[in-house]
C-alpha cells in the first residue's frame, strides 16, 4: 500500500515537472503567436490610422476583406500564380529529396561530406542572396534553354499554366537548394526501416524496385507528408514570395494601412491552410497490403522461434530430471 502511494506521488511529481518544462513554450506561444493573431484579426476588422497620439481604430466589419478583391485586382493574379508555382515546386523538391536520400543511404564513401554539401545552402544562402541570384539569372540551369521550352509549352497550354512552369525552370537551382532539410528527414526515416522486412521480401523473390514500392515508400509515407507540408510553408513565407511583399507594402501604404494588410494576410493564411489540408488529404497514410503481410509473417516467425526455445527449455529440464532420477 505504501509503495502504491509512493508511486502515485512520484507520478504526480513527474507530471508537474512536465508542466514546468512545457511552461516556457506555452508562454512563448501565447505572447508571440496567439496574442499577435488576435491583434491581426482585430486589425483586419478595422480601419487603422496612425496619428501622433497613437493608433486609431474605426470598426468597419468585413470591408477590408471585400476591398481586397475590389481594390487590388493583382491579388487574385498573385494568389493564382502562388498556387500554381507551389503545386509545381513541391513535387519537384520532394521527389528530388527522396532520390538524393536513397543515394546517400546506399553504400558509398564520403556520405557525410555529401550530406553537408546538400544541407549547406540551407544555412549559408539567405533571402537577399537568393534575390540577387534570381535577378542576375544565376538560379537557372545554364544548359537549359528556357525560351525554347516556353515556346513549345505556349502552343499546347494556356498562358496561366505556362508562366509558373517557365518560372520553375528559371529558378531550378533555387528549387533544388530548398531540399536540404527534406533530404535529412527522408534519410532518417529510411535508416529506421527494419532490415528484416527487406530480407523477408528478398526471400519471397522481391527485386530492389519492388522493395522500394512495397516497403520503402509505404513506410516513409508520413515523412512524405511532413516534407510536403514543410515545403509548402517554407515557400509560403519565403522572401521571394510576391504576396508577402505586397502585404508588407500595403501595411505602410497611405490609402490602405494595417487593417487592409491584416485582412490580406488572413486571406492568404486561409488559402495556405486549405492547400496544406488538400496535400494532407492526398498523401494521407494508407496501409499497404504487402507491407502488412510482411509484418504479419515476421511476427509469425518470431512466435515460432519463441515456441521452439520454450520447447527446447522443456526438453532440457526433462533430460536433467531424468538424469537426476537415474543417479538416485
Automatic annotation (TrEMBL):
SUPFAM superfamilies: MetI-like. The chain crosses the membrane at residues 21-43, 82-104, 116-133, 139-161, 168-190, 265-283. One of its GO terms (biological process) is transmembrane transport. Keywords: Cell membrane, Membrane, Transmembrane, Transmembrane helix, Transport. Pfam families: BPD_transp_1 (PF00528). The keyword DNA repair does not apply. InterPro entries: MetI-like (IPR000515), MetI-like_sf (IPR035906), UgpAE/MalFG_permease (IPR050809). It is found in: Cell membrane. PROSITE patterns: ABC_TM1. GO terms for cellular component: plasma membrane. It is a multi-pass membrane protein. Its main location: membrane. Belongs to the binding-protein-dependent transport system permease family. PANTHER family: BINDING-PROTEIN-DEPENDENT TRANSPORT SYSTEMS INNER MEMBRANE COMPONENT, BLL4140 PROTEIN. This is ABC transporter permease. It comes from Anaerocolumna cellulosilytica.
Amino acid at each position: 500500500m505504501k509503495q502504491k502511494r509512493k508511486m502515485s506521488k512520484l507520478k504526480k511529481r513527474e507530471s508537474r515537472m512536465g508542466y514546468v518544462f512545457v511552461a516556457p513554450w506555452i508562454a512563448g506561444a501565447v505572447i508571440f503567436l496567439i496574442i499577435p493573431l488576435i491583434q491581426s484579426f482585430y486589425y483586419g476588422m478595422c480601419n487603422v490610422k496612425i496619428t501622433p497620439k497613437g493608433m486609431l481604430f474605426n470598426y468597419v466589419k468585413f470591408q477590408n476583406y471585400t476591398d481586397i478583391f475590389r481594390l487590388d485586382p493583382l491579388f487574385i493574379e498573385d494568389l493564382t500564380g502562388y498556387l500554381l508555382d507551389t503545386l509545381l515546386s513541391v513535387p519537384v523538391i520532394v521527389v528530388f529529396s527522396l532520390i538524393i536520400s536513397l543515394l546517400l543511404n546506399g553504400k558509398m564513401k564520403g556520405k557525410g561530406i555529401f550530406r553537408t554539401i546538400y544541407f549547406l545552402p540551407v544555412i549559408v544562402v539567405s533571402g537577399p542572396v537568393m534575390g540577387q541570384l534570381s535577378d542576375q539569372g544565376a538560379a537557372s540551369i545554364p544548359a537549359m534553354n528556357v525560351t525554347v521550352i516556353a515556346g513549345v509549352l505556349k502552343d499546347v497550354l494556356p498562358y496561366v499554366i505556362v508562366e509558373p512552369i517557365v518560372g520553375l525552370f528559371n529558378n531550378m537551382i533555387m528549387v533544388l537548394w530548398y531540399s536540404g532539410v527534406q533530404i535529412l528527414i527522408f534519410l532518417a526515416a529510411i535508416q529506421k526501416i527494419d532490415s528484416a522486412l527487406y530480407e523477408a521480401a528478398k526471400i519471397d523473390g522481391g527485386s530492389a524496385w519492388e522493395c522500394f514500392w512495397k516497403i520503402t515508400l509505404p513506410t516513409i509515407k508520413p515523412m512524405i507528408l511532413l516534407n510536403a507540408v514543410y515545403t509548402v510553408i517554407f515557400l509560403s513565407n519565403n522572401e521571394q514570395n510576391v504576396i508577402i511583399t505586397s502585404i508588407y507594402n500595403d501595411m505602410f501604404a497611405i490609402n490602405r494601412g494595417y487593417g487592409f494588410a491584416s485582412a490580406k494576410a488572413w486571406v492568404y493564411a486561409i488559402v495556405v491552410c486549405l492547400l496544406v489540408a488538400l496535400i494532407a488529404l492526398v498523401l494521407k497514410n494508407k496501409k499497404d497490403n504487402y507491407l502488412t503481410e510482411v509484418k504479419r509473417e515476421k511476427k509469425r516467425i518470431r512466435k515460432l522461434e519463441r515456441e521452439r526455445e520454450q520447447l527446447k527449455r522443456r526438453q532440457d529440464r526433462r533430460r536433467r530430471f531424468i538424469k537426476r532420477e537415474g543417479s538416485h
